């Protein structure tokens, strides 16, 4: 078996989510190659070479891959991936953008969001917003799959000593162009990688109140901040903070849901958290069914008194 893992990165740093994908690749078994497609991304390739369990790193360093345009990266993945039994990427926005295109170019079906490896061709994946788990078997010559990072403990980012090889092949589809990006800069941990997440819902009432009430709690705990879709749709916070079926999937050690009712689509994004705390004025709120601890009360008084005691 030979497995190609597509590295997620920003041309400078290897995203930790790639370590979870390598862990899934190890469960499949076989030689693991990491493909770094970027521009000026030698540092990323060097980091990937240090990752435990990686036997080779392929670096496709070209301006065509600078902004990870899916059309270009997918063409490269399809070209390079022809020689592999498996192609894996993270189940993040980037992975979900690139891999289906690569699978289509290779004329194989793909399996999304695997959460367990049963065998080299058989995987488990959630369906119906995580309410059922399907076991699926691929009959393709190349298995193309995205990996839900939270389902696999990351491998160590040190200990490896893989060789880095350059890929000369340049795939510029010429059908898309990078214009600009707006990235929210935050001192807080990244949502999907954080040990603690504090999330606010419609119950916080406004964007201003979200920050007045929840920032001190997140500050005290060193937590990342998330939100329900209702809070995002109401404009309280940006949509990259949304947790749930159509947002990010998180599984931190501690998830604190404040003023969130616990709709099935929200639970789909956080119910695998190790400890769940709900703060809600409604003692019948559905979130309580998955919460390990719940505080019934007005968040505007409960959260500040919690902060005072921390
Ligand atoms: C296809 C689809 C995809 C979706 N994807 C997502 C998704 O990814 N993520 C997501 O979150 N939702 C998603 N939704 C929306 C989801 O169905 C819910 O509408 C949403 O999660 C509700 O958000 P909420 O809990 O913040 O709001 P509400 O359901 O309105 O709950 C607000 C809660 O705050 C409590 N509250 C109010 N005031 C206070 C107070 N002062 N103190 C304490 N508690 C208070 C209330 O008791 C209530 O429980 C999706 C829906 C669809 C149809």
From TrEMBL:
<dbReference type="InterPro" id="IPR033947">
    <property type="entry name" value="ETF_alpha_N"/>
</dbReference>
<dbReference type="GO" id="GO:0033539">
    <property type="term" value="P:fatty acid beta-oxidation using acyl-CoA dehydrogenase"/>
</dbReference>
<dbReference type="InterPro" id="IPR014729">
    <property type="entry name" value="Rossmann-like_a/b/a_fold"/>
</dbReference>
<feature type="domain" description="Electron transfer flavoprotein alpha/beta-subunit N-terminal">
    <location>
        <begin position="3"/>
        <end position="182"/>
    </location>
</feature>
<protein>
    <recommendedName>
        <fullName>Electron transfer flavoprotein subunit alpha</fullName>
    </recommendedName>
</protein>
<dbReference type="InterPro" id="IPR014731">
    <property type="entry name" value="ETF_asu_C"/>
</dbReference>
<dbReference type="InterPro" id="IPR014730">
    <property type="entry name" value="ETF_a/b_N"/>
</dbReference>
<dbReference type="InterPro" id="IPR018206">
    <property type="entry name" value="ETF_asu_C_CS"/>
</dbReference>
<feature type="binding site">
    <location>
        <position position="202"/>
    </location>
    <ligand>
        <name>FAD</name>
    </ligand>
</feature>
<comment type="subunit">
    <text>Heterodimer of an alpha and a beta subunit.</text>
</comment>
<feature type="binding site">
    <location>
        <position position="280"/>
    </location>
    <ligand>
        <name>FAD</name>
    </ligand>
</feature>
<comment type="function">
    <text>The electron transfer flavoprotein serves as a specific electron acceptor for other dehydrogenases. It transfers the electrons to the main respiratory chain via ETF-ubiquinone oxidoreductase (ETF dehydrogenase).</text>
</comment>
<keyword id="KW-0274">FAD</keyword>
<feature type="binding site">
    <location>
        <begin position="259"/>
        <end position="266"/>
    </location>
    <ligand>
        <name>FAD</name>
    </ligand>
</feature>
<dbReference type="InterPro" id="IPR001308">
    <property type="entry name" value="ETF_a/FixB"/>
</dbReference>
<feature type="binding site">
    <location>
        <begin position="242"/>
        <end position="246"/>
    </location>
    <ligand>
        <name>FAD</name>
    </ligand>
</feature>
<feature type="binding site">
    <location>
        <begin position="228"/>
        <end position="229"/>
    </location>
    <ligand>
        <name>FAD</name>
    </ligand>
</feature>
<keyword id="KW-0249">Electron transport</keyword>
<dbReference type="GO" id="GO:0009055">
    <property type="term" value="F:electron transfer activity"/>
</dbReference>
<keyword id="KW-0813">Transport</keyword>
<dbReference type="Pfam" id="PF01012">
    <property type="entry name" value="ETF"/>
</dbReference>
<dbReference type="InterPro" id="IPR029035">
    <property type="entry name" value="DHS-like_NAD/FAD-binding_dom"/>
</dbReference>
<comment type="similarity">
    <text>Belongs to the ETF alpha-subunit/FixB family.</text>
</comment>
<keyword id="KW-0285">Flavoprotein</keyword>
<dbReference type="GO" id="GO:0050660">
    <property type="term" value="F:flavin adenine dinucleotide binding"/>
</dbReference>
<dbReference type="Pfam" id="PF00766">
    <property type="entry name" value="ETF_alpha"/>
</dbReference>
């Amino acid at each position: 078996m030979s497995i190609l893992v597509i590295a997620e990165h920003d041309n400078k740093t290897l995203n930790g989510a790639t370590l979870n994908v390598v862990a899934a690749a190890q469960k499949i078994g076989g030689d693991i190659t990491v493909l770094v497609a970027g521009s000026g991304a030698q540092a990323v390739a060097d980091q990937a070479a240090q990752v435990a369990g990686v036997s080779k790193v392929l670096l496709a360093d070209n301006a065509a891959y600078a902004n990870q345009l899916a059309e270009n990266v997918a063409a490269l993945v399809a070209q390079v991936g022809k020689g592999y039994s498996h192609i894996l990427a993270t189940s993040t926005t980037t992975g979900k953008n690139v891999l289906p295109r690569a699978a289509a170019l290779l004329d194989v079906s793909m399996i999304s969001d695997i959460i367990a490896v049963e065998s080299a061709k058989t995987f488990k994946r959630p369906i119906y917003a995580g309410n059922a788990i399907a076991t699926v078997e691929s009959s393709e010559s190349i298995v193309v799959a995205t990996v839900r990072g939270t389902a696999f403990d990351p491998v160590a980012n040190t200990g490896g000593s893989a060789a880095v090889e350059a890929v000369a092949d340049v795939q510029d589809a010429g059908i898309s162009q990078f214009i600009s990006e707006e990235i929210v800069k935050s001192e807080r941990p990244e949502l999907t990688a954080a040990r603690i997440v504090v999330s606010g819902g419609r119950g916080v009432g406004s964007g201003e109140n979200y920050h007045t009430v929840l920032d001190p709690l997140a500050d005290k705990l060193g937590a990342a901040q998330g939100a329900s879709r209702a809070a995002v749709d109401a404009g309280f916070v940006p949509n990259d903070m949304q947790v749930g079926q159509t947002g990010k999937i998180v599984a931190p050690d501690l998830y604190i849901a404040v003023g969130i009712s616990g709709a099935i689509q929200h639970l789909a994004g956080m119910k695998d958290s190790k400890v769940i705390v709900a703060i809600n004025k409604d003692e019948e709120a559905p979130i309580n069914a998955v919460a390990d601890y719940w505080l019934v009360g007005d968040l505007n008084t409960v959260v500040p008194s919690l902060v005072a005691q921390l």
